[in-house]
Amino acid sequence: MSRLEVLKKSLEKKEILFNEKLVNHFADVKSANGQPLNDKRNGGVTLDRWDKQNESLRNLKQSVEKTKSAIEREESKIAYVEALSSEIPKEIMDLVEKGILTQWRKNPNFFFVVGVEKARIVWDLKKKVVAHRYIREIKDKAQWALFRDVYNRLNAQLNTENSND
Fold first, then answer.
1. What's the total number of domains in the chain?
2. Phi and psi angles of residue 64, each rounded to the nearest 5 degrees, phi first
3. C-alpha to C-alpha distance for 147 and 136, rounded to whole angstroms
4. Which residues form a coiled coil (predicted)?
5. Domain endpoint, select from 64, 85, 106
6. Domain span at residue 25?
C-alpha cells in the first residue's frame, strides 16, 4: 500500500471519528434541555465535560487538517516524480517497471539496482548520460556483478547513443 493510500485511509477514519464525536457532543448538549447549569448540582461537571469534548474536537480537527496537507504534499511529490520521469530515457523507465531498478523519490534521477546496497545509477539531466555513484561501497561480488551487468547494459544503450548525436 502506497503512502498516499495510507494517508487517504487515515483521513477517512479521522473524518468519521470527528463526525461521531460531533454528533455525540451535540446530543450531550441537547440533553441539558436548555436548563441553566450554574445553579444545578452537577452543572460544573457538565461544563467541564463539554470543555473536554470541545478540546477533543479541536484536536481532531487539527489532525484532519494536518493529514489533508500531508496528502497535498504527497500528491505534489508524485507529480514532481512523474514530470521528471518524462525526461528520463525509456530504457531506464522500462527497468523500473520490470522491478530491476528502483527510482528514488527524493531525487528522481537516481536509481538503485534491486539487490545491491549503496551504489546507485544516475541519469545526468544536463549532460544526458548515465553514470554511477558509490560504486566503491559494493563489497559483495554477487552484488558487484549484478550492478555491473545492469549499468553496462544501460551505458551501452544510452551513452553510445548520446555520443553519436
1. 2
2. -65, -45
3. 12
4. 47-77
5. 85
6. 3-85
The amino acid at residue 16 is I
- Residue 99: enclosing H or E segment and its boundaries? none
Q: 113 with 133, same domain?
A: yes
Q: Which among 76, 134, 81, 71 has a CA at the least distance from the CA of 103?
A: 81
pLDDT digits (tens, 9 = 90+) for 7-62: 999 999 999 999 999 999 999 888 877 776 666 677 788 888 899 999 999 999 99
CB-based contact 53:20 (threshold 8 Å): no
- Asked if 32 contacts 38 with a C-beta cutoff of 8 angstroms, the reply is no
Q: What is the pLDDT of residue 65?
A: 96
- Domain boundary at 68, 85, 102, which? 85
More confident residue, 165 or 159: 159
- pLDDT at position 70 is 94
**Residue appearing with cell numbers 495510507:** 6
Asked if residue 76 and residue 108 are part of one domain, the reply reads: no
